[in-house]
Design a protein that fits this description.
Helix content of chain B: 55-70%
Number of strands of chain B: 0
Shape of chain A: globular
Number of domains of chain A: 2
Strand order of the largest sheet of chain A: 2-1-3-4
Distance between the termini of chain B: 50 Å
Largest sheet of chain B: none
Strand content of chain B: under 5%
Strand content of chain A: under 5%
CATH architecture of chain B: Up-down Bundle
Low-confidence stretches of chain A: none
CATH topology of chain B: Fumarate Reductase Cytochrome B subunit
CATH superfamily of chain B: Transmembrane di-heme cytochromes, Chain C
Oligomer: heterodimer
Distance between the termini of chain A: 84 Å
Low-confidence stretches of chain B: 241-268
Mean pLDDT of chain B: 87
Order of helices and strands of chain B: HHHHHHHHHHHH
Largest interface: A-B, 90 and 74 residues
Largest sheet of chain A: 4 strands, parallel
Structural class of chain B: mainly alpha
Chain lengths: 520, 268
């Protein structure tokens, strides 16, 4: 019986995905090899069919985007690109000045892990630059393909949808580019264009919808949050014999604590939450969570939407107005810290109502380390003697933020805090840490199951570096200060043959080591 | 005035105008496009002096490139350094009496022109030989390298191949160039190598503002390198916003009306 020919809609063509659901990563050797053509490793298009699910109509509508791919998608996309070129110096300059020198080509974890050459940062940017040249430059209009210009057709749009969701916007490429070209800026612009023509990513757009309607990424309503915190308080009292509180919506508290919602109950995130609570308790500083700002994360950044980012961030200013705290502290979350440190002042500042003695906002690691250095809390390192600890610098923290007063504080402060909580600490290969850190592979909105293949591949370089110190130093704990890293590694470590328990928070170590009770 | 002189004088005026106007338009575009968010690639300097130093290290030593890929750094840096010296030596054509420093450079004969040519050839070969670089290259990347190699070759041939003829030509070139700048063009030297070299340079000047060579000015506008990391201390912005939304109780607006951004005057 002949099958009826069903015409695929453009939206279906663009989002049609065939990921390798049984993808298994190669054995770890500890070395990170750059894929080369001769051994057949580079295969053009090998991950072109790894694509995230498309957002449904109601999700798109909730965010004010077209519900599905618009009919005049080519013209609409070009128009949006034109708007963005006038709004963002980064986009305009970076599309113009890339000389295709190739020094970024072997630096992206997604290329190193997937062997797909379109995951080389310059090639990824070219996907957008081709269209820029064709519609906006004399060189592109005159010389066409010779100049690398190309019309935006469905195939290219499909490649945009695939490859701009195989970039976690980690900025590693910009460290190595002679001009600091930031592919994250290009990726954000491409996603913003796609959203504006109705091509949205389900995972990120759904979560943004949850933030607007319920208040946080996980859709935890205020009642559920209150109940969870109460239950966690009971567990804490059982564990420590002390009444350590997890306050919620307490007006007049000194500290407003904004943390990723995963910290409230996910594992191992909640272990860090216990750490925060113990630290505040022992330091005797009044603090509170807020149902208005029950999410530090800001997925608006991932889709390049200034308005979404600002809308999500405005919850924090609502909370400040309600709680009237003196200080604002952010929990262990990577991209949230970038948004908080670099963007909050612009988006929802100034923070005149807060105590100018303290930085606004402040990272929980800055806060806790300061208490440790002043002797306000004491840590017993021996409590973590079961662990040989290493630290994974989260990408947004490393390359998009800072801590303390000196550049590079985001590297030294968490490490100093770890070392004050445990006896044995080892850093991974210097080429893989600090500003050269490899992304966990799940950042930038890539944390969904349907693109697990690229998550596993993107994690490969970090796993190799970790494997090396596991073998050489017996590392059995990788400390993290990012909720996405924690979620990613708990899924990814077992795929690479390593135990889930290796991933944990810095404040998890602090929670183990902190001496509770009467002050010395 | 001979037809040849007229043609080459016009060629010069057109080329220099396209170059100057093109570059000024590009620079204006980069200056006037807003950078609404603080996005320095951290760790980043927290003072303006620090940023100046960071820029200096990039422009003068190509620091990031050195850390990324030593091969490309050798090729790129040698080319640019050679170019700098070659430019300096060309200054002798712009003054009736050659300045002493330029004269010294010319007489030392550092063979910087050869370094430039060798570096360009090296970069051309790299582009073809390394699979990743070949994948990302477009035809115009090779065309540009080819143009530069042709300019360097014809220049070197002019200088070293028939040196007696070249030495005799220098005052004629000075006269021609001087005439161009005083808008009373003298006779163009008829030496074929010179004319080819000159024409290629004019073509490069015309192509320059439309090509990736704008990186020469663009690098200074790269927000990841030229922004100061002081977002907690100093508020970046505020920006005039069409639909200010500081409370989540307001309905979301469609993207076509959404925020952004006419810049307040304070931008750095």
């Amino acid at each position: 019986m002949a099958e009826p020919v069903v015409e695929k809609t453009p939206a279906e063509i663009v989002s049609e995905a065939h990921p390798n659901k049984d993808y298994h990563p190669p054995e770890l050797t500890g070395e990170i090899r750059t894929p080369v053509v001769e051994d057949g490793m580079i295969i053009k298009g090998v991950t072109s069919a790894v694509k995230p699910y498309m957002a449904k109509e109601n999700i798109q509508a909730q965010l004010g985007f077209p519900e599905t791919l618009v009919d005049n998608w080519e013209a609409a996309a070009v128009k949006k690109l034109g708007e963005l070129l006038e709004r963002y110096k980064s986009l305009q300059v970076y599309l113009d000045i890339c000389v295709r020198c190739g020094s970024c080509t072997d630096k992206c974890q997604f290329y190193l892990g997937s062997n797909d050459p379109n995951n080389m940062p310059v090639a990824r940017a070219e996907l957008l630059r081709k269209v820029y040249k064709r519609y906006f430059t004399t060189e592109g209009k005159l010389f066409g393909k010779m100049a690398g210009a190309q019309k935006l057709d469905l195939k290219l749009l499909g490649d945009w949808y695939a490859y701009f969701h195989q970039c976690s916007q980690c900025r590693r490429c910009s460290v190595f580019c002679p001009y600091g070209i930031d592919t994250a800026e290009i990726s954000m612009a491409a996603r913003e264009i796609m959203d504006s023509i109705g091509l949205g990513q389900k995972y990120v757009n759904e979560i943004l919808g949850k933030v607007h309607s319920v208040g946080n990424n996980l859709g935890m309503n205020p009642k559920a949050l209150a109940a969870t915190l109460e239950s966690t308080e009971e567990d804490l009292e059982e564990e420590t014999g002390q009444k350590i509180r997890l306050p919620l919506d307490e007006v007049g508290a000194e500290v407003l604590m904004v943390t990723p919602s995963a910290d409230f109950f996910a594992s191992p995130h909640v272990e860090s939450l216990l750490g925060y609570a113990k630290v505040f308790h022992q330091a005797g500083i009044s603090w509170t969570f807020s149902t208005a700002a029950s999410e530090a994360g800001n997925f608006g950044m991932f889709i390049g939407s200034y308005s979404q980012m600002q809308k999500v961030a405005s919850r924090v200013s609502d909370a400040i107005r309600e709680i009237k705290p003196k200080r604002l502290i952010v929990g262990e979350c990577g991209h949230a810290w970038r948004v908080a440190y670099s963007f909050w002042n612009t988006l929802i500042g100034p923070f005149d109502m807060l105590d100018p003695k303290y930085p606004s906002p402040q990272h929980i690691c800055e806060f806790t380390l300061d208490l440790v250095m002043r002797g306000a809390i004491k840590l017993d390192k021996s409590k973590n003697d079961d662990y040989v600890v290493t630290f994974h610098d989260s990408c947004n923290v490393a390359r998009g933020s800072a801590m303390g007063n000196e550049p590079g504080g985001q590297f030294t402060i968490p490490r100093a805090l770890i070392k004050s909580a445990c006896n044995r600490f080892v850093d991974m290969d210097p080429e893989t840490i600090c500003e050269k850190t490899f992304c966990c592979g799940g950042g930038g909105g890539l944390l969904s199951d349907e693109i697990m293949q690229i998550r596993i591949q993107g994690a490969m370089p970090r796993m190799q570096a970790l494997h090396k110190v596991v073998e050489s130093d017996g590392v059995n704990f990788m400390a993290l200060i990012c909720a996405i890293c924690k979620a990613q590694f708990t899924k990814i470590l077992p795929k690479y043959g390593m135990p889930v328990s290796m991933a944990g928070g810095v404040h998890q170590l602090v929670a183990n080591a902190i001496e509770l009770g009467a002050k010395a | 005035m001979t037809g040849l002189t007229l043609a080459f004088s016009l060629f010069f005026y057109v080329a220099i105008d396209v170059f100057l106007v093109g570059m000024m338009l590009k620079i204006w575009k980069y200056v006037s496009t807003p950078a609404p968010l603080k996005i320095p690639q951290t760790p980043a300097p927290k003072t303006a002096a620090g940023v100046g130093f960071r820029m200096f290290r990039e422009v003068v030593f190509f620091r990031a490139l050195f850390r990324s890929n030593k091969l490309i750094w050798v090729g790129g840096y040698a080319f640019h350094l050679g170019l700098l010296f070659v430019f300096a030596k060309h200054l002798r054509f712009f003054f009736p009496a050659t300045p002493a420093l330029v004269d010294t450079l010319v007489n030392i004969d550092l063979y910087t022109g050869f370094v430039m040519l060798a570096a360009l050839t090296f970069l051309f070969i790299l582009r073809l030989a390394i699979d990743r670089h070949k994948f990302i290259s477009v035809v115009n990347d090779y065309v540009l390298l080819g143009l530069l190699i042709a300019i360097a070759s014809t220049g070197l041939l002019s200088r070293f191949w028939d040196s007696s003829d070249t030495r005799a030509m220098v005052p004629h070139i000075k006269e021609f160039v001087g005439g161009l700048f005083s808008f009373s063009p003298g006779p163009v030297p008829t030496n074929k190598l010179f004319l080819i070299h000159f024409s290629l340079v004019m073509l490069l000047l015309i192509y320059f503002p439309f090509s990736k060579l704008v990186h020469s000015v663009g690098i200074f506008f790269s927000p990841t390198r030229n922004q100061i990391d002081n977002s907690r201390k100093k508020r970046w912005g505020p920006w005039t916003v069409k639909n200010p939304r500081h409370s989540r109780s307001q309905e979301p607006v469609p993207v076509s009306q959404s925020l952004m951004v006419s810049k307040e005057p304070s931008d750095s």
